[in-house]
Amino acid sequence: MPALLASRGDGVVARHAARPPLAVRHVTPSTRIRKKNSLYPNRPDELSSRPIGRVPPPRPWLLMLINLIPDYLSVLNSRDRIAAYLRYFDAHRPLLTAYWHNYVLDPDGPHFLDVVRATALADREDLTAMLERSDVVALARSAEEQCAELLAVDMPVDVVLMVGVGAANAGELVVGGKGTAFVCLEHFTGVANAETQGLGLDPELIPLWLAHEIAHAVRYTSPTSRSELARLVAEADGYYSYWETGRRASLRELLLNEGLAVHTSRAISPGHAAWEYFGYGRRQFARVRELEPVIQRAASTDLDRSGLGLRLRYLSGGVSDQARATDRFVLPERSGYYLGARMAEPAVAARGLAWCLRASAQELMGVADSAAATA
Question: Could you state, in order of their start, the residue ranges of all structural domains in the chain?
Answer without folding.
Answer: 61-249, 251-374
